[in-house]
């Protein structure tokens, strides 16, 4: 009888201790999940301004993984593009550009941005921008109009 009681209390102890552990574990996984979720949610909310120019915005989704456009937002893999029209390439503070882009002496205009979009690596050999390009003229037009609208300072 005493053995049974001991066994029972042992079981109880085991059950209660594992019960005691459970919430801890859940807390931990919750924390981890939260950490992962937060930046993603912030990134998508902040990066892709709405526009009447639906096609332009849709093409910009190709860029949004690497570029913010809203003033004050951080650089991502690529620099924040706010206010880049009319400026010299490779001048955003706090972003480390390739020597290739900095030394090319580009000033961003409709003409230069179109050449860049067409094929970044052939326009600026050695650029860090790993992007195949936007080839269709219709998509380039829409994207350039969208960029002009949403990167205004
Ligand atoms: C995989 C990430 C990635 C994608 C996708 C991408 N870019 Fe970039 N972009 C970069 C990087 C990195 C640089 C810096 C290039 C360098 O230093 O050579 C850059 C530079 C630029 C610049 C020059 C900015 C400056 O300050 O001179 C422009 C403009 C630009 N990207 C536009 C675009 C557009 C528009 C798209 C979408 C069609 C796009 N990028 C897609 C990573 C990306």
TrEMBL record:
GO terms for molecular function: electron transfer activity; heme binding; metal ion binding. Residues 51-151 form the Cytochrome c domain. Residues 1-21 form the signal peptide. It holds the Pfam family Cytochrom_C. The keyword Iron applies. Keywords: Electron transport, Heme, Iron, Metal-binding, Signal, Transport. It comes from the Bacteria. InterPro entries: Cyt_c-like_dom, Cyt_c-like_dom_sf, Cyt_c_1A/1B. PANTHER family: CYTOCHROME C. This is Cytochrome c family protein.
